[in-house]
Automatic annotation (TrEMBL):
Record's protein name: Integrin-like protein
One BP annotation, GO: cell adhesion
Positions of the UniProt region annotated as Disordered: 332-355
Transmembrane segments: none
Keywords in alphabetical order: Glycoprotein, Hydrolase, Repeat, Signal
PROSITE patterns linked: FG_GAP (PS51470), TAT (PS51318)
Domain of life: Bacteria
Taxonomic source organism: Streptomyces longispororuber
Signal sequence, start to end: 1-33
Keyword Glycoprotein applies: yes
A GO cellular-component term linked to this record: integrin complex
One Pfam family recorded for the sequence: FG-GAP
Length: 501
């Protein structure tokens, strides 16, 4: 089951979309021990390795999920905003080693240069069909010859020892846009059992689809383009890409999150269905606006449902916009024909309350956190103020109902850095929840919770893995910081601003 998504931000506010991320500040890394989070959910019943908790990405094919995170504004070799990516490898019993990769790393093509922004976006898949997941990395600011900010995409190849070596993918339309690789999504859009790669730029509404059949020499099985019906000029274009099968026909579909540069300035989401010949934009459907999406069958009816996060949605009737998430239930005729569910911080059972600037729904991810066989939803609110601490951020866990009817506010739990078990403490501008991810790092049948706080330590950023217990608890022993993986604290690396989901 595909459950993938993306994110970004332009300033010190919480992220708006994956291809627009910026970063801020300096400091050194520090790790603090955490305890136990008493967030009891339904008892775990799923067997280890159950389908809902199969690893999203497994670069060394050891059965444990691996998590890739961006620090796309990191200094590398003294070059500002050259960018880096970290991978935290899962292992038996918990969290394994974390390794940083940049364009100065052995085996990685190119060279770290100012403004490359290596890690602008990430996508995973077994591109060469050798049994090891690979990592596609966008470098949206890469200068390609005389093409300033033309952008590029590299595939870092999986192996028994993890990511090793890389191949640069050629931009098929270098004169048609800038910032190639600003948004990425890997999926099988035509059902041929080969992983395709969709590439957006953020500067146009056109998405390049590179057909599966990738070789380490850079060849693909062909390419084509699809164009979302995004209106306006200037900033109108693709921000995020996601995939899943919302009409249950066996082909993965593409969700395009774009920005419509209209007077209202709304974000626009489009569903483009897959088929035996690939994506079919002629059959697209416009969805509710939002900045981020994820897909998964939350109500177990055989159709992937689309969860839309809209951090600007009004969660307070007639008042400020605190944010909301919408579940668009899949249907045979596509998501526009299914039922809809809306959840805000004012929904019964959801902790706290909607307030202006919370940005509830600014990030989200699906996974079976309590192991009961139903998908749960992580929702980031990176602008949340907690106990007077501005923009420290928070994450809400919304559990799937035991009867399989979908996500609700019942029994929801709130996580902050002052919650026992979450490393570190609430501080102004941490933006906890700017990225969230659910994945099974230790192969125990429960998705673990991985949180990003790109504002941590004055903008250095951090990643916090929390292991899910059989009793519904979450335990995080320490955080992953730039200093712990060899990324300089110079400038504003913002580790954790983006995960490969």
């Amino acid at each position: 089951m595909a459950q993938r998504k993306r994110t970004t931000s332009r300033d010190t506010r919480p992220p708006l979309s994956r291809g627009l991320r910026l970063a801020a500040a300096t400091a050194t890394a520090a790790a603090m021990a955490g305890g136990l989070i008493a967030v009891a959910g339904p008892a775990a019943t799923a067997a280890p390795g159950a389908a809902l908790t199969a690893p999203d990405a497994d670069f060394d094919n050891d059965g444990y999920a691996d998590v890739a995170a961006s620090a796309s504004y990191a200094y590398v070799g003294g070059k500002a905003e050259a960018g880096a990516v970290t991978v935290t490898y899962g292992k038996e019993g918990g969290v394994g080693r974390s390794v940083a990769y940049s364009q100065n790393s052995p085996g990685v093509g190119g060279a770290a240069e100012k403004g490359d922004r290596f890690g602008s976006d990430l996508a995973y898949g077994d591109f060469d069909r050798d049994g090891y997941d690979d990592l596609a990395v966008g470098a949206g600011g890469e200068d390609v010859g005389r093409d300033v900010d033309g952008g590029t995409v590299q595939i870092l190849w999986g192996s028994p020892s993890g990511l090793k070596g890389s191949t640069t993918l050629k931009d098929p339309r270098p004169s048609g846009h800038d910032r190639f690789g600003g948004s990425l999504e890997a999926a099988d859009f035509n059902g041929d059992k080969k992983t395709d790669l969709a590439v957006g730029t953020g500067t146009t509404a056109v998405v390049d689809v590179l057909r599966g059949g990738f070789t380490r020499g850079g060849a693909t099985n062909g390419r084509y383009t699809v164009t979302a019906d995004i209106q306006g000029a200037g900033r109108a274009g693709v921000m995020n890409l996601h995939s899943g099968d919302a009409n249950g026909d066996g082909y993965e579909d593409l969700i395009v999150d774009g920005f419509e540069n209209t007077q209202a300035g709304y974000n626009a989401n489009f569903w483009i269905p897959g088929s035996g010949s690939g994506l079919k934009p002629s059959r697209d459907q416009k969805l509710l606006p939002g900045v981020i999406t994820d897909l998964g069958d939350v109500d177990k009816d055989g159709y992937d449902d689309i969860v839309v996060g809209n951090q600007w949605d009004s969660g307070i009737p007639g008042s400020a916009r605190g944010g909301a998430v919408h579940v668009l239930h899949g249907a045979r005729g596509g998501p526009a024909h299914g039922d809809r569910t809306k959840i805000t911080q004012n929904t019964a059972g959801v902790p706290g309350g909607g307030e202006k600037g919370d940005f509830f729904g600014g990030e989200l991810d699906l996974g079976d956190i309590d192991g009961d066989g139903n998908l749960d939803l992580l929702v980031g609110a990176p602008g949340e103020t907690v106990d007077g601490v501005t923009d420290t951020g928070a994450v809400t866990i919304l559990y799937g109902r035991a009867d399989g009817s979908g996500i609700s506010g019942r029994g929801a739990k709130l996580l902050t850095q002052d919650t026992p078990g979450v490393p570190n403490t609430d501080e102004k501008g941490d933006f906890l929840g700017a990225e969230v991810h659910a994945d099974d790092l230790n192969d125990d049948g429960r998705a673990d919770v991985i949180l990003g706080a790109y504002g941590e330590n004055g903008g250095n950023g951090a990643v916090y893995p929390l292991l899910s217990g059989a009793d519904g608890s979450l335990k995080g022993r320490s955080g992953i910081y730039p200093g712990t993986v060899g990324i300089p604290g110079t400038g504003t690396p913002r580790l954790g601003v983006n995960f490969a989901d």
